[in-house]
């Protein structure tokens, strides 16, 4: 088999694994609670935006495996770190909001958010695949801004707890993209 065939196969496997993790997350209350307990560790908040970089590299190299392995890592990174002994009150409040938001009935704003997340990944991959660097940066900045605004509007001041990870993530992603453009 050709390398591209293996790449597509492994890409599909990581995409399926990502879907399986999402299904498990929403179908198992024990897994859901365990995940959120570990997501209180804000290291996961800082690492998650950094997975945009390997997604971009995967799209740049046109590697399905790299793209979908990175998306899998992004989804699972919320439970990579141990449950912290001490947690900031704003983090606790924000995660309470997220848990309620994720477990209550579907509303128009939730549908909008799900569509926005899917479009984020699609635009992230499309703009990189097609070497549209300004649009790529626009997508990253707007998505971080959208995440912060959405979080503050729906969760109040506790939503501000994601500002630092979001800003740092945008800065690091922008620098990585700049290096990628400069290197090519």
N-to-C series of helices and strands: HHHHHHHHH
**Main beta-sheet annotation:** none
Uncertain runs are none
Number of domains: 1
End-to-end separation in angstroms reads 29 Å
Global structural class? mainly alpha
* Oligomerization: single chain
Shape: globular
Jot down its keywords.
184 residues; mainly alpha; 9 helices; globular
Question: What do these coordinates show?
Answer:
The mean pLDDT is 94. The chain is mainly α and 184 residues long. Helix 1 (3-27) runs parallel beside helix 5, helix 7 packs antiparallel against helix 8 and helix 8 runs antiparallel to helix 9. It contains nine helices and no strands. The chain is globular, with a radius of gyration of 17 Å. The protein has one domain.
Task: Give a nutshell description of this structure.
The chain is 78% helix and 0% strand. The chain is mainly alpha-helical.
Structural topology:
Blueprint: H1 3-27, H2 29-39, H3 43-47, H4 52-60, H5 64-76, H6 89-103, H7 108-129, H8 133-155, H9 163-183
